[in-house]
Write a structure and sequence with these properties.
By secondary structure, this protein is an alpha+beta fold. It is built from 3 helices and 8 strands, in the order E-E-H-E-E-H-H-E-E-E-E.
Length: about 140
């Protein structure tokens, strides 16, 4: 069995962003040479997420509204965590959106359903963060 590991780095301009990382993950798969196996992709920071969904701008706006209703950024004083930092909402948003995805690899391709894409969700940006891509298989 083969194993491949790569880190993808991001430095977002905004506090919150959704980035389609599917092309970067597909490049990792090509580099790995693995044709059958599993791909794990996970955020390496507690205020970021990796998830699978549709690449549709309206849906991304809906995610933003939904998450802001469940865990509003302000007022910062509403969270016990906020003292040294002001990112308690980002921790909660990450918990809702999830840490990682696992995708089957079949015949050298990500085995997606219709419209599925991999996204990096940033909830406390404007600094350098990373995503791990780990692929195992033959």
């Amino acid at each position: 069995m083969k194993s491949y590991r790569k880190e993808l780095w991001f430095n977002t301009k905004n506090r919150r962003e959704f980035i389609n990382i599917t092309p970067m993950v597909e490049q990792c798969l090509r580099e790995s040479g693995i044709k059958e196996g599993l791909l794990l992709c996970n955020a390496m920071h507690i205020t970021a997420s990796v998830f699978i969904n549709d690449d549709e701008a309206g849906l991304h706006q809906d995610f933003e509204k939904f998450l802001e209703k469940l865990a509003p950024e302000k007022p910062y004083s509403q969270y016990a965590h906020n003292g040294f930092e002001d990112n308690a909402d980002a921790h909660l948003k990450r918990t809702i959106m999830g840490r990682e995805v696992v995708v089957a690899i079949t015949d050298g391709r990500l085995d997606f359903g219709p419209w599925e894409q991999i996204f990096y969700g940033e909830f406390d940006g404007r600094r350098r963060k990373r995503v791990l891509v780990k692929i195992i298989g033959e």
